[in-house]
Amino acid sequence: MPALHVTDYFAEVVWLGKVANREAKLNSVSCTSLKLLFSGPEGENHGGETRLSCSRVLGQYRRGTPIRNTRQLSIASEEELSMIAKGMGIDALDPSWLGLSMVIRGIDDFSHVPPSTRMQNEAGTTITVDILNRPCHLPAKVIEEYCPDKGKAFRQNAQDRRGVTGWVEREGIIALGDVLRFHMPTQREWRGGAF
Description:
Helices cover about 15% and strands about 35% of the residues. The protein is mostly beta strands and about 200 residues long. The chain has a single domain, classed as Beta Barrel (M1 Pyruvate Kinase, Domain 3).
C-alpha cells in the first residue's frame, strides 16, 4: 500500500500573496501566481531551505539554531477566515493582514488536515503540509490599522482556525483558480503509549 493515498478532497486557490520584507511589514502583497521553488515561493521573505529556530520550537532547539524550513508557506481556508472575522465582529479578514501565502476554498476544517498531506495541482506542483499554524500576536497590530479596537480579538478567534504551514515538495507554478487535490497519509490514528 502506498504511503499516501489520492483522495476526493479538492480545494480551489482563491488568493495568493507574498511578504517581501517581514522586518519592514508583515502584510502580504497579493499576486496572481507564485513560482514555488524548493526554497519556497520566489521572492518570499519566509523562504529558504533552512531557517533560524524561533519560539515555536524552543522545546527542541535554542533560539537561532539553523533548522529545516517547513514554514515556507502560510495557508488558510476562506471558510475559517470567515469564522475568525465573524468572531472578531468584522465583515471580512483580508488575507494580506495575516502575511498569508495562500487562501483555499472547499475544505471547512482545513487547519486540522493531517500533517504530511500533499496538496497538488494538475501540473504536479506540490506543497506538503507541516502542522497547524498557531495564531501569534503580530497580525493584531496590522488588523488594528484597518479595524481599530478589533486586532486584540484576533488571537482568541483564530485559535484552531489559523490554517497550516507548509513547504514545497515539487517545484512549479501555483495560480489563482488552480484546483489542488489532497493526497493523505495512509496510517491508523496514533494511540500514544507509555514512555
